[in-house]
Write a structure and sequence with these properties.
Blueprint lengths: L2 H19 L3 E32 L8 E8 L5 E11 L5 E7 H8 L8 E6 L1 E6 L5 E8 L10 E33 L1 H6 L2
Antiparallel strand pairs: 1-8, 2-7, 3-6, 3-8, 4-5, 4-7
């Protein structure tokens, strides 16, 4: 073999080796990659709320009563309680009751009724009760037992309750998604399954 033939064979071998080992063939494959994204996640919080139901200082005439009708909706609320006070400011005393609507109608008709609050002939009285259902509640200042003396009670009532509300916070989550990728492989890798 002459020198030219050896060179041609050598160059040919180099070309064959390059073809075998250089990555020249495109191959598509599927892989899983992490992807981060911001999402809104719900969470619940319990908040304390209060609402002033009434604050007044009326004159209750002798032999009469007055009442305040207040609607309390306890649905979707927890730990409901109404707190307040009654103070007879003229130095006398007064009867005080709290009824739901059914109880008030019975009491008004002089039928038996169970009040949520009952305080007889009080000068100062702090009260609290649990409104156990959605209804109209009646706060009654009763001066029916007095023949001559008007009364001037000051009264306040506040409703306290808790509500659960849904809030949202932004968090970063990692998801894994499938993507198609292409890489170049050599003929040898292709043959060997690499």
């Amino acid at each position: 073999m002459n020198r030219n033939t050896k060179v041609i064979i050598g160059v040919g071998m180099v070309i064959v080796l390059l073809l075998l080992f250089l990555p020249i063939v495109p191959v598509t494959y599927t892989t899983t990659v992490p992807k981060q994204e911001k999402v809104l996640k719900p969470y619940e919080v319990t908040e304390q709320k209060s609402r002033l139901l009434l604050h007044d200082k009326p004159t209750v005439k002798a032999g009469h009563y007055i009442y305040y009708r207040v609607y309390i909706d306890v649905s979707d609320k927890k730990n409901n309680v109404v707190k307040g006070y009654v103070e007879e400011t003229a130095g006398y005393d007064i009867n005080f009751y709290v009824f739901d609507q059914k109880g008030f109608m019975a009491w008004k008709s002089e039928n038996p009724a169970t009040p949520y609050v009952e305080a007889k002939r009080v000068k100062y009285y702090e009260f609290s009760f649990v409104p156990d259902h959605t209804d109209y509640y009646y706060f009654v200042l009763d001066n029916g037992y007095s023949w001559f003396t008007n009364k001037v009670p000051e009264m306040e009532a506040t409703w306290y309750y808790e509500v659960t509300i849904t809030k949202y916070k932004e968090v970063t989550e990692t998801r894994y998604v499938k993507v198609n990728k292409t890489k170049r492989v050599s003929i040898i890798e292709l043959i060997l399954g690499g």
